[in-house]
Amino acid sequence: MPRPKSNDKPAKTPPGKIMLSEIQEQPEAIARLLDREYLPVWEMAKSWRETPPRFIFIAARGTSDHAALFAKYLFETMNGIPVGLASPSIASIYRAKVNMEGALIVGISQSGEAADVISVLQSAKRAGVDTLAITNAGSSKLAAAAHQVILLHAHPEKAVAATKTFTNTLASLVLLSAAIGDNTRLLAQLQRVPQLIEAVIKDAAQIQEKVERFRYLEECVVLGRGYNLANSYELALKLRETCYVRAQAYASPDFLHGPIAILEKGYPVIAFANKGVTLFSVLDVILQAKARGAEVVVIGNAPEALASADVAFTVNVKQTVPEVISPLPAIVAGQFFSETLSVLKGIDPDKPRGLHKVTVTL
Amino acid sequence: MPRPKSNDKPAKTPPGKIMLSEIQEQPEAIARLLDREYLPVWEMAKSWRETPPRFIFIAARGTSDHAALFAKYLFETMNGIPVGLASPSIASIYRAKVNMEGALIVGISQSGEAADVISVLQSAKRAGVDTLAITNAGSSKLAAAAHQVILLHAHPEKAVAATKTFTNTLASLVLLSAAIGDNTRLLAQLQRVPQLIEAVIKDAAQIQEKVERFRYLEECVVLGRGYNLANSYELALKLRETCYVRAQAYASPDFLHGPIAILEKGYPVIAFANKGVTLFSVLDVILQAKARGAEVVVIGNAPEALASADVAFTVNVKQTVPEVISPLPAIVAGQFFSETLSVLKGIDPDKPRGLHKVTVTL
Q1: Do A282 and A254 touch, CB atoms closer than 8 A?
Q2: Cα–Cα distance between A309 and A180 in angstroms, integer?
Q3: Which end of chain B has the least Cβ crowding within 10 Å, N or C?
Q4: Is the CB of A246 less than 8 angstroms away from the CB of B84?
């Protein structure tokens, strides 16, 4: 029987502060990723620069699936490559033979242990289709199952709620998109992300001191669109996991298709509002929510949206932030919000009830 | 100025009974669809039988997007064709040029007026890519924008909450899958759907009499997997729209990745559990929910799951129902549940607050 491996090192952080510490590590973690993976990824993408994949299919669960949603906007808009999100059960349970000729299949799992994501890569590889694993665990089964691997270099993530592995996954996807498109402008934008996140961390008190108002928050919706839609799902998941808040994410137009009926006076609506071509759509839903008396919380860099909010969490308002990278600093503000609220509610954000770091999907 | 058109005919149904009446029309509506569209769809699919699309991209919002999720499982499993769900804003807002060579782009909208879905079809058609509209409105912009049209023949749907257009959309997708795959067995299974739904309607009292228990239901989760995952999203939307219940849908494995933390003693978990290869996964999450003291409500035909439920809504337990068509009768049980609960809560299910039948997405 193989000896169980352990990644545990003596903790430097006091108990109850692991998630907070991992949030603060993010600038360093992304800088490390870019430093270590820039050359390998540019080299890996050589053949895709010549002949781009016909389409990209991404298999992921939970937080990694939110990163996959970001990737859909990224590769379609920046690279013109259609992206589908794989339903892992189609390979693992239905055992369907899907014609993936010319595709690139990407599996994302920070632990590298998500069984059904591994199964998608294995069956694609057997069929002779290009496969790529994005993982924080270089010796994982996921890494072994793929032709190519992008390592996240986020160092072990110990809190149950993913923070630095999420932003490092987004950064690795932007790096891959830039490498496939030979897009040095996008690469330069990506290289600014550590300092943009550093600015959010320096300004964290601005977020933390406004959290008290939400001590008795029990439910909310979280809205976004385009590149920032993934953030809505990710923040809603953090709020559910670490604060037991019944948070539900929607793309702003989908929210208008039915769920808006739930709004009543004072109902909390959190919106990611960053400058860019989708901002008008988020502003539209903010105005409609305000017209119904909702309490509007805005996270982002768009002054119009921040000015119309009941509570505004400003992110990088003094910098110029291209929409494509705006989700990275903005979700960090959301992470601070969740972590602070969790502690305020008397919950241990590092160990929410009933959750394990690695979920094995049958 | 053009004279506004109206589809309104004198209502045969008393006010407050429109949704109920439309639920009951479903066997007839599906039979009409199959009768009118069987030959045109088989003819339309001739070239796809010879050369299947390399992949299918589907654009849809709201209820139609749930049908698109069903279509993903359907075309991948039955036809081996990869399916992606289009993010309409990538065409309508980001104006990205995505390489859709060899693809089939499907737009679904019962009203045919969803502006961003129309925009996806228009830009695909301009690029010379095959397009197909699935709509209940033959003279709509969506129908005009596509190379091919499948008409739903559901007759006008007047209640705000979609019922018969949802099941007719699922049926039209199964018809298309059978036509592409020359799958006469699947066609024969589809032809049984009207009688399976008829059986649910005859047995509706069984559902309605158990709804009183849920008079004060304020929130719940709705779970499913595979072909039945779309039903979870659809029932959650019906409960939000018509009952103002904060219902949240999850694929059963995704629920285990974090959201399960929300469970506490007595928390209501609704699960679709039909016989088939995904049943073990739904049973697994039912057992985990029960172990945490959740109240488990099961809708479906799987005896093991029904037996373990606190409240069981049985659907076609006496018939043999292939998993691929099981969502159609099962969602009808969910529609009865929503409509009955809405009335019990003193809400008008035909006119929930703040919703319009056609939502224009900017």
Answers
A1: no
A2: 39
A3: N
A4: no
